[in-house]
Design a protein that fits this description.
Layout (H helix, E strand, L loop, with lengths): L1 H6 L5 H20 L3 H21 L11 H21 L3 H21 L27
Bound molecules: heme C (HEC).
Heme C (HEC) binds next to helix 2, helix 4 and helix 5.
């Protein structure tokens, strides 16, 4: 299977980035609502998406001469870890700080790739509104 994947052309990096954008958006609304379980889930999915990109697009032309498989973890792993720590503490202030750090990490790679115009920041309206962000009512 791994051998077969190697022979397939890599997915389009811009497409893979769209998934990151969705996860990044949902993480914000879940954390803002204090829905820590949902936020923790989203940051996990974001981490998985990052790993998927590293594996399938580790040599992405957009980042040459740098190697995406090296740049992505070095830029994103500390930001993801800080976010997970903030969520584990159910700390809203730490969440917002970690979120801005995460967004800055995304943007720093775009800058490195010569696409500084792709600036990632806090969303102002949810991308989709059919997922409930409010935490379940306590009984
Ligand atoms: C390792 C480098 C790297 C990291 C880290 C990274 N990106 Fe990107 N991103 C790119 C590159 C390169 C492009 C341009 C892709 C292209 O040319 O199609 C891009 C493009 C994008 C786009 C535009 C996609 C489009 O075609 O409309 C979005 C949105 C995006 N990234 C979101 C994010 C988010 C959100 C994060 C963080 C969670 C992130 N990126 C982290 C390298 C990165």
């Amino acid at each position: 299977m791994a051998e077969l994947e190697k022979r397939l052309p890599p997915p389009e990096l811009g497409q893979q980035m769209l998934e990151l954008q969705i996860r990044h958006d949902r993480l914000w609304w879940a954390g803002k609502a204090g829905n820590w379980n949902l936020a923790y889930f989203m940051v996990g999915e974001l981490g998985e998406a990052l790993r998927g990109i590293e594996q399938t697009n580790g040599d992405a032309a957009e980042l040459q001469p740098q190697k995406l498989s090296e740049v992505m973890p070095s830029v994103m792993t500390p930001a993801i870890k800080t976010m997970q720590e903030a969520l584990a503490k159910h700390d809203r202030t730490a969440f917002v700080k970690a979120y801005d750090q995460l967004s800055a990490a995304c943007s720093s790679c775009h800058q490195l790739a010569g696409s500084a115009f792709l600036h990632i920041e806090r969303p102002k309206t949810p991308l989709l509104d059919n997922l409930r962000y409010a935490p379940p009512a306590r009984r």
